[in-house]
Amino acid sequence: MKIAKQLSLIALLTALGGVVHLLETLIPFPLPVPGGRWGFSNAVILIALPGGKLSDLLLLGTAKSILGAFLGGRLLTPMFLMSVGGIVIAILVMWMMSRPGAPFGLIGISLAGAITNNAVQLFVAAFLIVRSTALFLIFPYFLILGSIAAVVNAIIAHSTLRKVGGSLWKEN
Amino acid sequence: MKLFRAFDLMVILIMAITFLLFFPAASNGAEVAHVFQDGQMIRTVDLFLDSLIEIGDALVLQVEKGAVRVVEANCPDQICVKTGWTSSPGIPIVCIPNRIMIVIPRKNDQAIDVITG
Questions:
Q1: For residue A138, what are the contacts with CB-CB under 8 A and spacing of at least 6?
Q2: How far apart are CA B5 and CA B37, in angstroms?
Q3: pLDDT score for A15
Q4: What is the secondary structure of B8-39 as a DSSP string?
Q5: Which residue from B2, B22, B39 is facing A105, i.e. has the nearest CB?
Q6: What's the topology of domain A3-164?
Q7: For residue B92, with 0-12 CB atoms within 10 Å meaning exposed, 13-18 middle and 19 or more buried, which class applies?
Q8: pLDDT tens digits for range B10-29
Q9: Which of A98, B71, B81, B107 meets the CB 3.0–4.6 Å disulfide criterion with B28?
Q10: How high is the ipTM of this complex?
């Protein structure tokens, strides 16, 4: 893939993800956790996953979080730290699960991404911010809400990928 | 890439196990709430002593009939205020800007505390 095309694809997905990241904070999140979000913006990561390079995906994920936090006025707050930490680890896990030959479908990959994202967010909040492991008591609720968004993301990614022929990164 | 493959069930299973491991015990009629700041317990509140309690200049807590809530906070997002009443160990009140958590300990935690002194 030509470098210009690759860059514009990353930029396009970053813009889309950043805006969804901002807009989803308007959907009420029924959990008393600062920075708690549904995670619908992770659909762009899932769309970029098949055929994507790990470095491109990490760039996309962090740029999306930075853009979303910037637009929402949360840049460099603890919530921002939770968001970036969560997305980086989640991308590593999802990338490994989407390697050619790995036996997982989009729903499994999306759910695993949501679990690791939520777990890392709570780890960052529990060990770096409030310094109390009692925060993990809300993990089950996080899991339920996160998996709803994860399944929705998988369905969105599946229908998008079908329309573009399986991968956004193909040379054509 | 397929939407769903058989191995996805494994992910769902792992998730269900994690869920069960972490799921909190049902409400236990706890009698106290602990207030933590920076991971240090700074105060223990009797939940059956109806009162208004100030935590520094950060929060004002209200205690009534075995439950506690934050009525006033000095932070911009007011998430702890919106959390509302809690009387369950499963739902701590969290204030990230002030690094404060209000937690109701589980009954068996209290029992262990009593045994080990």
A1: A31, A32, A33, A122, B90, B91, B92
A2: 46
A3: 95
A4: HHHHHHHHHHHHHHHPPPPP----EEEEEETT
A5: B2
A6: Arp2/3 complex 21 kDa subunit ARPC3 (1.10.1760)
A7: buried
A8: 999 998 888 888 775 555 55
A9: B107
A10: 0.81
What token pair was written down for B19? 């869920």
**What is the chain B residue with the closest CA to A167?**
B1
User: B109 CB near a chain A CB, below 8 Å?
Assistant: no
Establish if B85 belongs to a structural domain. yes
Q: pLDDT tens-digit profile of A72-131?
A: 887 888 888 888 999 999 999 999 999 999 999 999 999 999 999 999 988 888 888 777
Which residue in B1, B69, B78 has the most chain A C-beta atoms within 10 A of its own C-beta, making it the best mutation to test that interface? B1
Q: What's the structural domain count of chain B?
A: 1
Within-domain flag for B45: yes
Beta bridge pairs of residue B55: B59
Say yes or no for a CB contact (<8 Å) between A32 and B83.
yes
Reported confidence tier of residue B112, pLDDT bands at 50, 70, 90: very low
Backbone angles phi, psi at A31, to 5 degrees: -130, 140
